[in-house]
Design a protein that fits this description.
The chain has 515 residues and is of the alpha+beta class. It has helices at 16-27, 70-78, 106-114, 121-143, 153-172, 177-183, 190-203, 213-219, 234-247, 288-294, 303-313, 382-387, 390-411, 413-416, 427-434, 478-495; strands at residues 6-12, 32-35, 47-50, 53-56, 84-86, 91-94, 99-102, 228-230, 251-253, 258-264, 267-272, 275-284, 316-326, 337-341, 353-358, 371-381, 419-425, 440-441, 459-462, 465-467, 498-499, 502-503. Helix 4 packs antiparallel against helix 5 and helix 4 crosses helix 8 (213-219).
Length: 515
């Protein structure tokens, strides 16, 4: 084994959690290698090519692009070739009960809701004032990641100074968002309830009756926290961040699947499709079950790991429509995001509720000029899907796809009538496009409960071995998983040997490589 195949850290999986970890470690002086089985990075937020068109793997609306936020900082620091389109409106929301073009200013949304018939104006305004207090306190954790665990003395001092701002959060812990609405006397105001049910479904992965209130209140600000469309797709951002990793001296190995992991003395041996590599620190940006399946040494996994996989399996997979359409007449061809509900009296899943992201007309590498691509997703309850026989799964997914088309035609005919290319995807297909086991998406639903606050620190599987991704706090979005990667890197940096505050490289592993 040559020194060329020895690294301080190896990261498995080039989703945004793995990319964030690799870039942060490389910035700190670690010799890192990032391995990805697919030929493109980004994971569930990757951008892939089929039949000459480029589609987002999942319908994606991403935040964190302001200059003081993580993606914005990286774009500026490394001069990344990323062009942003700032959205207005943020989302076109269409349902059988209410249609809203979500404005780019929250005050305008509040005003719109207050002007609806029979709106409880005082309750709405009081609720949103409280929501803003909770959101401001929690979003500060993303703007200043030092506030996230692992904490040092300086971070604890910051938290102590901010304690009054945390009081609104404490009041809502172990309560559902619906209970908060009830406290403000607006739980019977159906337009707001429908909007929040749909918003929670795509952010915290459950409805407002189930959602843990602090998380749901924070995600209500998602549209107003540096949210933009990255021209070329989120896969373009993933590619540019991979270039930043190489600028910092790291390596990115696409189309090189990790086949096995083995513990050797003070480090790890990583078997890939193209060779064997050694490292001291190992970070898996995979689901727990995928990580455990790779490990070839004897190990006693921590109890929380299997529980995390059980929680993921109790969540969602996705059925997808990948479409190409001519730009509808009278529109400007900008990237758009649509959220559509066919019937508000039925569960927001299985094609009754869909989320759609389009490319912009300027992205001629994704579709010919005058056309735009559409990625449309709907939630599939994983337990239900896995309970079906192989013979039952095909007809079930066909039914879901038909419901998706019906919802698109009913709620967004201007796009539906322009479609000239269509490709469907089942959970199995989505797994092939993203390398996500069983096509699982979205991390763990943030349902009401204290348990969410017991798992805030970096998750260590064994000595020098960590898990990162959307099943690990803070999870759930490209910004959150990338931020989680930064936290893992900070934890590793603090534990790594240093001399005069400079990293002592650890690549000289003396272990004998097993055959």
């Amino acid at each position: 084994m040559t020194m060329q195949n020895q690294y301080d850290a190896i990261i498995i999986g080039a989703g945004f959690g793995g990319i964030g970890t690799a870039l942060s470690l490389a910035e700190k002086g670690f010799k890192v290698a990032l391995f990805e089985s697919l030929r493109y990075p980004g994971g569930c937020a990757g951008t892939f090519t089929r039949r000459g068109y480029r589609f987002e793997a999942g319908a994606t609306l991403s935040s964190g692009f302001d200059e003081q936020q993580l993606f914005g900082k990286w774009i500026k620091k490394y001069g990344l070739d990323i062009q942003l389109e700032w959205l207005s409106p943020m989302i076109h929301f269409r349902s059988s009960t209410i249609d809203i073009d979500i404005p780019s200013e929250k005050d305008a949304l509040i005003q719109y809701l207050c002007e609806l018939p029979n709106a409880p104006k005082e309750g709405i305004r009081a609720f949103f004032k409280h929501q803003g207090q909770v959101a401001d306190a929690l979003w500060a954790l993303f703007d200043d990641p030092d506030l996230l665990p692992p904490w040092n003395l300086q971070a604890l001092i910051k938290h102590a100074m901010r304690f009054p701002k945390y009081l609104p959060i404490l009041r809502n812990m172990n309560r559902s968002l619906a209970q908060v609405l009830q406290r403000f006397g607006i739980d019977d105001f159906k337009p707001l309830k429908i909007y929040l049910d749909a918003l929670c479904q795509i952010t915290v992965q459950c409805n407002s009756d189930q959602a843990e209130a602090p998380f749901a209140l924070a995600t209500m600000d998602y549209y107003y926290r540096g949210t933009a469309h990255a021209v070329g797709g989120m896969g373009k951002l993933a590619n540019e961040l991979c270039k930043a990793i190489t600028l910092c001296g790291g390596e990115v190995h696409l189309s090189n699947k990790v086949k096995g992991i083995k513990r050797i003395d003070e480090g790890y041996q990583v078997e890939t499709r193209k060779g064997t590599y050694l490292c001291k620190y190992l970070i898996s940006n995979l689901l727990p079950e995928q990580t455990m399946a790779l490990y070839k040494s004897s190990i006693k996994w921590p109890k929380w790991l299997e529980k995390t996989q059980e929680d993921v399996d109790a969540g969602w997979s996705a059925a997808m429509l990948y479409l190409v359409a001519e730009t509808p007449p009278g529109t400007d061809g900008k990237a758009e995001h649509w959220q559509m509900v066919h019937s508000t009296d039925e569960p927001f899943m299985e094609g009754n509720h869909i989320f759609c992201s389009t490319s912009s007309i300027k992205e001629t590498d994704r579709a010919p000029f005058g056309s735009q691509t559409l990625t449309i997703s709907t939630h599939i309850p994983m337990k239900k899907f896995l309970s079906l026989s192989d013979e039952e799964k095909g007809p079930y997914i066909d039914k879901v796809h038909n419901r998706m088309r019906e919802t698109l035609q009913t709620r967004c005919p201007e796009w539906s009538e322009q479609v000239y290319f269509a490709m469907t995807a089942s959970p199995r297909t989505f797994e092939r496009f993203t390398s996500r086991s069983k096509g699982l998406v979205g991390g763990i639903p943030k349902t009401k409960g204290w348990h969410h606050y017991m798992q805030l620190g970096p998750k260590k599987l064994a000595s020098h071995f960590y898990l990162v991704g959307d099943s690990i706090f803070p999870g759930q979005s490209t910004l959150a998983t990338a931020t989680g990667g930064c936290r893992i890197a900070e934890s590793i940096w603090r534990s790594a040997p240093k001399k005069n505050n400079q990293l002592v490289l650890t690549t000289a592993l003396n272990s004998k490589v097993s055959s």
